[in-house]
Amino acid sequence: MTDKKQSIMVIVDGGYHPDAVELIKGIPAEITFKRISEKGCVDTIVLPELGIKRFLPINEQQTFSINTDKAGEYQFHCGMDMAYGKVVIK
């Protein structure tokens, strides 16, 4: 994290590592997902409350800007709704 932006990397390998991401309210944030294997059903990431759904190609980074103006807990999951994680804004 810098003073102006929070950046988090989530490795996707049959699940999400880490599966819980904490962000500081009011500081702009980016979360990058990188799928490194074909294990599991995690080829799509869905953050329903944040309006994000995107395919995750193998070994490519997909970066999302996250609005951190509102504190809360936001779930994310794979396209089959079987692997889960969360974004917590404090």
From TrEMBL:
Q: State the organism named in the record.
A: Lentilactobacillus farraginis DSM 18382 = JCM 14108
Concerning InterPro entries, the annotation shows: Cupredoxin, EfeO_Cupredoxin
Protein name, entry field: Copper-exporting ATPase
EfeO-type cupredoxin-like domain segment(s): 6-89
